[in-house]
Design a protein that fits this description.
This protein has 226 residues and is of the alpha/beta class. The chain has one domain: 3-Layer(aba) Sandwich (Glutaredoxin), CATH 3.40.30. 31% of the residues lie in helices and 16% in strands. It contains 7 helices and 8 strands. A 6-stranded mixed sheet has the order 1-8-7-4-5-6. It has a two-stranded antiparallel sheet with strand order 2-3. The radius of gyration is 22 Å and the shape is globular.
Length: 226
């Protein structure tokens, strides 16, 4: 993966909790920088207009049109446009609890709750019990929680992360970003941060900051049963 793609700024959507509002979603694309490949792809797919006298624009009056074909074309175009507007997750490399190298895309095919945290982070500690409680309601085939510990080797180490997880009896999947590959790829500015990724690998929502159980469940509802 090129360094250019890795440096794309993936600004996370903030949650609106005013009057019990639902989790903000489907707006992440508005936070993407102009050089994002998704936006470039949309521009490349925009048809170029031709003069009215172009042979391509000359109607063929002898050609019949099957309404069903027209509907099929419209459905196909609509699907393509919807895919262009969706935000595809970017892969990264981290390490599992046993020190094995794993990638985010290893888990695509199952809806993912992706969380970035560290054991020294107070807000992270506040929300972790909610994540663990909800994660135990699902098998890893239904929904998987990937809790990525941002290890810098000083303030946060693998040992500190493991001690915190084990002391609290957390059972979700914990991964360690010892090379800062995940943090760099997603330009994590503060923790905790959470992304909700559907089974096809599209980011449906994101939250920067600690969330409660209700908000967590709202985010999950966006990526299940799609």
């Amino acid at each position: 993966m090129s360094s250019k793609i890795k440096t794309i700024l993936y600004f996370l959507v903030l949650v609106s909790l005013i009057s019990g509002a639902a989790l903000v979603y489907n707006n992440l694309s508005d936070k993407i920088t102009p050089d994002n490949p998704i936006l470039d792809k949309k521009a490349q797919n925009t048809p170029v207009s031709t003069p009215d006298n172009s042979p391509d624009n000359t109607p063929d009056t002898n050609k019949s049109v099957d309404p069903s074909d027209k509907d099929a074309d419209e459905d196909t175009n609509k699907t393509d446009e919807e895919d262009d507007d969706r935000l595809k997750a970017i892969d990264f490399i981290v390490y599992d609890y046993d020190g094995n190298e794993v990638a985010l895309f290893d888990y695509i095919g199952t809806p993912i709750v992706l969380n970035f945290w560290a054991s020294w982070c107070g807000p992270c500690r506040m929300e972790m019990p909610h994540f663990n409680k909800v994660s135990e309601e699902y098998s890893n085939d239904e929904l998987i929680f990937l809790m990525v510990d941002l290890v810098d080797g000083q303030r946060e180490t693998v040992e500190k992360g493991k001690n915190y997880v084990e002391e609290n009896g957390f059972t979700f999947t914990v991964l360690f970003d010892t090379d800062q590959n995940a943090a760099y790829t997603y330009q994590i500015r503060s923790i905790p941060s959470t992304l909700f990724i559907d089974s096809e690998g599209y980011v449906e929502a994101g939250v920067e900051g600690a969330i409660d159980e209700t908000t967590l469940r709202r985010g999950i509802s966006l990526i299940l049963n799609k």
